[in-house]
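Hi team,

As requested, here is the filled-out complex form for the iron/sulfur cluster run. I kept the field names the same as last time so the parser does not choke. Let me know if anything looks off before we queue the next batch.

— J.
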Amino acid sequence: MKVSNNVASVDKNRLCHGCGACSYICQSNAITLKNDGYNNYPFIDIAKCNQCGLCLKVCSGIHFDLKNTSCTEQELLLSKNNLYIGHSNQASVRQKSASGGIITQIILNLLREKIIDGAIVARNVGTIPDIGAAVVHSEEEVMNSTSSIYYPVSVCAALKQIDRNKKYIFVGKGCDLDSLNRISVIQPWIGKAIQLKIGIMCHHTPYAQETKELVESVGISNTRLTRIVYRGLGWPGDTVITSGKRQYVLPYKISWGKYLGKNIPFRCKLCSNGMAGHGDIVVGDSWKMNPLLQKDLNDGYSLFMIRTDAAQNVLDKLCKANDISIEPVSSKFLIDSQSNLISKNESALFKVLIFKLMYKENLLNNTSFRYIITDTIFIRLLFSFKGLRRLASAFKNYYLYVKNKKDM
Ligand SMILES: Cc1cc2nc3c(=O)[nH]c(=O)nc-3n(C[C@H](O)[C@H](O)[C@H](O)COP(=O)(O)OP(=O)(O)OC[C@H]3O[C@@H](n4cnc5c(N)ncnc54)[C@H](O)[C@@H]3O)c2cc1C
Ligand code: SF4
Ligand code: SF4
Ligand code: SF4
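And here is what came back:
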């Protein structure tokens, strides 16, 4: 794709997903992340920018890594990765987490055993402006970064806080991990410092505005908000809004159904990386439950895929220490549990190809037109049919074949 030499065009073309990698890599401090009610985006101080182009190199918003990140139904059926459902055996962790607390338990154990010095995570420590990513080092800090934050979080920006001589876990969405990988190519020491990459399955990040509307729906303004927990109190978890001494509780079905799931950002519609292709392990919700386990469903289970030996070793250690309980599941179970996410990933493949074609051939100069055409009802309908989603997967393979040939 033809772009100017910094990431200004990424946001202009609505391709920014707000990972924050550009602000981390910029050596001139020219990039500040902002939020105007939608996603986090880079604001560039042109006077400081030397046009080095590094920010563009690490940006996964504008680069679509279809080869390493997409995860179609067919690919999942053929995959040899180990799949499990499970949960932390520590009641407080399981209760405070989004699903079964597998991510939090891994961080706690590796910190305790001093295998890592810290973890790069999304933190929800206070009111809305305090939602952000940080490096956490203590058990208390880890327990303050449990559960899902349905608000834009720029995880890669927190890389500024890491020490090149120490070891870390990185937790992020597929797009955060994709950018992290790009950063590691430019700065290999980052790749060495990150011992384990944990991906979270991700359908989309809700805009900031949606949290504002959610908070206002209980009759308080954002400025009077003390704390918001999107998924607390069991599984799938109620949204708990605190303002001073008052607490308001909204069922997940209402908070996600009516507010947070309402709009899908354009870049998320083009995302086929909902299964965090670069993660050593990827964790999501077990939306479909094993009937044998149905009795304690309210306590939550994480559904996860192990992609590397490093992740499998960590998991085995946690099981041996009896800190987690897990049980293997089939690809079919994962597909049934994540059918929404997988069909979105598959339809995104085709959308990306259309978008790329329009971009490359400059078929439409106006971004809004490209945007509308890529997201027509027709395209959406087309991919509501399973067979046609498979066609998208075939398109992807063909596209990669042509691209590989060109690159050779
Ligand atoms: C925006 C978003 C969309 C999601 N969409 C889906 C989906 O479609 N299907 C599905 O099955 N699961 C989805 N998830 C994942 C799911 O909600 C849980 O995060 C996952 O099951 C892990 O649960 P856990 O109990 O093991 O994690 P926990 O032990 O609760 O740990 C959660 C970890 O995720 C990190 N985190 C929280 N919010 C963010 C964020 N916004 N960006 C980066 N890191 C974050 C936290 O720092 C923490 O380390 C989504 C999560 C998010 C944040
Ligand atoms: S082109 Fe270089 S100097 Fe300019 S914003 Fe990007 S990284 Fe910073
Ligand atoms: S690096 Fe991330 S935050 Fe920066 S422009 Fe790209 S997608 Fe947006
Ligand atoms: S859908 Fe994709 S681009 Fe959007 S937040 Fe999730 S991983 Fe990032």
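Two things worth flagging: Residues 97-104, 121-122, 145-150, 153, 155, 171-173, 200-203, 205, 283-285, 302, 338, 341 surround flavin-adenine dinucleotide (ligand 1) (CB under 6 Å). The first strand starts at residue 31 and ends at 35.

Thanks,
J.
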